């Protein structure tokens, strides 16, 4: 599919936000310069934690009309939730390659429901697991922690996956998620990531706007090499 030019996009994960004030916290992030919201959906099976589902997403969408919402589906049987998430107003449905045997039919189902397709891989999953599917996706998510909990330490060994994707797909949206912050953003940017998910680094910051701006500046300084 045609892609490009590559743009830096900063998407705070709201997993560590005050979920009792989800709308206010989300709007504050957007007012501070976030490009999109990264919504972590966990089912207690694929990962040992439980978070929000499509009813919460729908309520948030009713208050925030035009922002790009990415659902990071850390769930078994991701096929089950395509239609509910589309109905809730999700813009991009990102599922784990480890969670399904029917990757291409699932990609088709997501697109038919009117959403973009993201494919995610855990730290222990090699790049060969998604090689054949890259052309079916709008974005590849390289997890830089084990999915399931916020606040984990960044795994720098994941950067070769990002480098391989960027080398072979110069204009592909490549997202990193997990332990990404001011101390690790340079590694992500230099490897070629252009979609940056940051949780605690943004949520817990005294000045969210300054952190988002700093992350963006680091990524944009590397991105121009891909757009030449």
TrEMBL record:
<feature type="binding site">
    <location>
        <begin position="199"/>
        <end position="200"/>
    </location>
    <ligand>
        <name>substrate</name>
    </ligand>
</feature>
<dbReference type="GO" id="GO:0004750">
    <property type="term" value="F:D-ribulose-phosphate 3-epimerase activity"/>
</dbReference>
<feature type="binding site">
    <location>
        <position position="177"/>
    </location>
    <ligand>
        <name>a divalent metal cation</name>
    </ligand>
</feature>
<dbReference type="InterPro" id="IPR000056">
    <property type="entry name" value="Ribul_P_3_epim-like"/>
</dbReference>
<feature type="binding site">
    <location>
        <position position="38"/>
    </location>
    <ligand>
        <name>a divalent metal cation</name>
    </ligand>
</feature>
<feature type="active site" description="Proton donor">
    <location>
        <position position="177"/>
    </location>
</feature>
<comment type="pathway">
    <text>Carbohydrate degradation; pentose phosphate pathway; D-xylulose 5-phosphate from D-ribulose 5-phosphate (non-oxidative stage): step 1/1.</text>
</comment>
<keyword id="KW-0479">Metal-binding</keyword>
<protein>
    <recommendedName>
        <fullName>Ribulose-phosphate 3-epimerase</fullName>
        <ecNumber>5.1.3.1</ecNumber>
    </recommendedName>
</protein>
<dbReference type="InterPro" id="IPR013785">
    <property type="entry name" value="Aldolase_TIM"/>
</dbReference>
<feature type="binding site">
    <location>
        <position position="13"/>
    </location>
    <ligand>
        <name>substrate</name>
    </ligand>
</feature>
<keyword id="KW-0464">Manganese</keyword>
<keyword id="KW-0170">Cobalt</keyword>
<feature type="binding site">
    <location>
        <begin position="148"/>
        <end position="151"/>
    </location>
    <ligand>
        <name>substrate</name>
    </ligand>
</feature>
<feature type="binding site">
    <location>
        <position position="40"/>
    </location>
    <ligand>
        <name>a divalent metal cation</name>
    </ligand>
</feature>
<dbReference type="GO" id="GO:0005975">
    <property type="term" value="P:carbohydrate metabolic process"/>
</dbReference>
<dbReference type="InterPro" id="IPR011060">
    <property type="entry name" value="RibuloseP-bd_barrel"/>
</dbReference>
<keyword id="KW-0413">Isomerase</keyword>
<feature type="binding site">
    <location>
        <position position="72"/>
    </location>
    <ligand>
        <name>a divalent metal cation</name>
    </ligand>
</feature>
<dbReference type="InterPro" id="IPR026019">
    <property type="entry name" value="Ribul_P_3_epim"/>
</dbReference>
<feature type="active site" description="Proton acceptor">
    <location>
        <position position="40"/>
    </location>
</feature>
<dbReference type="GO" id="GO:0006098">
    <property type="term" value="P:pentose-phosphate shunt"/>
</dbReference>
<feature type="binding site">
    <location>
        <position position="72"/>
    </location>
    <ligand>
        <name>substrate</name>
    </ligand>
</feature>
<dbReference type="Pfam" id="PF00834">
    <property type="entry name" value="Ribul_P_3_epim"/>
</dbReference>
<comment type="similarity">
    <text>Belongs to the ribulose-phosphate 3-epimerase family.</text>
</comment>
<keyword id="KW-0119">Carbohydrate metabolism</keyword>
<feature type="binding site">
    <location>
        <position position="179"/>
    </location>
    <ligand>
        <name>substrate</name>
    </ligand>
</feature>
<keyword id="KW-0862">Zinc</keyword>
<dbReference type="GO" id="GO:0046872">
    <property type="term" value="F:metal ion binding"/>
</dbReference>
């Amino acid at each position: 599919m045609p892609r490009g030019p590559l743009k830096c996009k900063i998407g705070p994960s709201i997993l560590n936000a005050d979920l009792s004030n989800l709308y206010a916290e989300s709007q504050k992030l957007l007012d501070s310069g976030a490009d999109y919201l990264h919504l972590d959906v966990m089912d207690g099976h694929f990962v040992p934690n439980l978070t929000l589902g499509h009813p919460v997403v729908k309520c948030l969408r009713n208050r925030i009309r035009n922002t790009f919402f990415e659902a990071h589906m850390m769930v078994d049987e991701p096929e089950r939730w395509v239609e509910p998430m589309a109905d809730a107003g999700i813009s991009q449905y990102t599922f784990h390659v480890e969670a399904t045997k029917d990757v291409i039919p699932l990609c088709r189902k997501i697109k038919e429901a009117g959403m973009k397709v993201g494919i995610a891989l855990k730290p222990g999953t090699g790049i060969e697991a998604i090689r054949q599917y890259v052309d079916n996706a709008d974005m590849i998510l390289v997890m830089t922690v084990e999915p399931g909990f916020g606040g984990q330490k960044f795994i720098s060994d994941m950067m070769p996956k990002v480098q391989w994707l960027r080398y072979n797909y110069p204009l592909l949206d490549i997202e990193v998620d997990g332990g990404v912050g001011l101390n690790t953003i340079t590694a992500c940017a230099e490897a070629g990531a252009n979609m940056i998910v940051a949780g605690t680094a943004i949520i817990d910051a005294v000045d969210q706007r300054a952190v988002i701006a700093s992350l963006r500046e680091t990524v944009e300084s590397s991105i121009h090499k891909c757009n030449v």
